[in-house]
Amino acid sequence: MEQDPADSLLTVGLMARRSGLTTKALRHYDRVRLLRPAAIAGGTGYRLYRSDQVAEARLVHLLRTLDLPLDQVRIAVSAWKQGDTQAVLDVIRLHRRHLEARVTRLRGALHTIDHLLAEGIETVMPESDAPGSTATTKSTPGTGSVTDVKLLAAQLFNDTWRLLELENRTRQDDDRMIHSAHASRYHWGQVPTVTPAHLARGEWQISRVYSVLGRSEPALHHAQRVLDLCQENGIGDFDLGFAYEALARAYAVAGNAGQARQHTDRALAAAEEIADEEDRDLLLADLETIPGQPRYW
Fold first, then answer.
1. What sign does the CA torsion over 37, 40, 44, 49 have?
2. Between β-strands 39-40 and 47-49, what pairing exists: parallel, antiparallel or unpaired?
3. Cβ(226)–Cβ(203) under 8 Å?
4. 125 is a domain residue
5. What is the model's pLDDT at position 39?
6. I want to staple 211 with a disulfide (CB 3.0 to 4.6 A). Which of 141, 180, 219, 225 is the partner?
């Protein structure tokens, strides 16, 4: 029968129960030299752990439940053992950024799948952009659009989305993303047939970029512009819901949980008025990604 005195070495079974890790995981983390046992029992080869390793194992368990890669877990655990809690949080913040990009990309894939299932595969096949072909909105910004401001605005908008979906953006990517979003909104403003909805969506994208980058002040400014454009021009439905979503997200980034909750409530109310079920589901899914705000609806 296993003994569990506080000052004794713990068997792998006891370590598993105390830490939340499985015995299989503990053996794996030993093999990859992430969480080594304090001793190996002679004759049996059993792994034995000190009681003060339980906290380390619990941290490993927590970080793995966040889907943190092993190399990043290793960095975070090393920093934690040195008492550098801030470095651990920095690792988690960077991982959150990667997850957010992944969610953005997956949400786009789901949106395309919904169109494919509803309208057929031919409607969502990518347009050709081979040499000599006509430039499309998916082309690199500036391709065939030097004299077509509407096409250029759309290309810049889509390029901003491409950058939002990158999991390992560099500082240069971040800068390009900001400039692309602003340039897209500017060029939409030069289109003779532009509608207020186009402008609102451009402002929304700028706000999203700044929220992703953790810059609350410009995120709030551009989110408010979305709402202003909607209210001044009688725009409701999808765009109004996302105006409130943008404000809720920007307030969450600013650390104002009360305002984030208030504008989430307004977004939820607006969602009830969205005619298209797919658009409504997209808004509700986006609300679930607002940082620091668990789903409550």
1. negative
2. antiparallel
3. yes
4. yes
5. 94
6. 219
Instruction: Give the model confidence (pLDDT) of 261-291 as tens digits.
Output: 999 999 999 999 998 888 888 899 889 889 8
Q: Write out the H or E segment, with its range, that includes residue 222.
A: helix 216-232
Q: What is the mean pLDDT of the chain?
A: 87
Could you tell me if 116 and 123 are in contact, meaning their C-beta atoms sit under 8 angstroms apart? yes
Dihedral of alpha carbons 79, 83, 85, 90, sign = negative
CATH number at residue 142: 1.25.40.10
- Domain count for the chain, please give it: 1
Query: Would residue 83 count as lying in a domain?
Result: no
Choose among 246, 242, 244, 238: nearest CA to 222. Answer: 246
Using an 8 Å Cβ cutoff, are 181 and 160 in contact?
yes
Torsion of CA 170, 175, 176, 182, to 10 degrees: 150
CB 275 within 8 A of CB 263: no
Task: Examine residue 236 and state whether it is found in any structural domain, yes or no.
Answer: yes
- Rounded Cα distance, 81 and 59, in Å: 11
Q: Quick one: pLDDT at residue 119? A: 65
**CA 258 → CA 210, 211, 218, 254, 292, distances in Å?**
20, 17, 19, 11, 12
Distance from C-alpha of 102 to C-alpha of 4, rounded to nearest angstrom: 43
* Pairwise CA distance, residues 36 & 240, whole Å: 54
3-state SS assignment for residue 58: helix
pLDDT in tens, 249-259: 999 999 999 99
Residue 270 domain-assigned? yes
Q: Looking at residue 222, what is its pLDDT?
A: 98
Its domain, for residue 123, covers 93-287
What confidence tens digit (pLDDT) does each residue in 76-124 have? 999 999 999 999 999 999 898 888 888 877 777 766 676 577 667 665 5
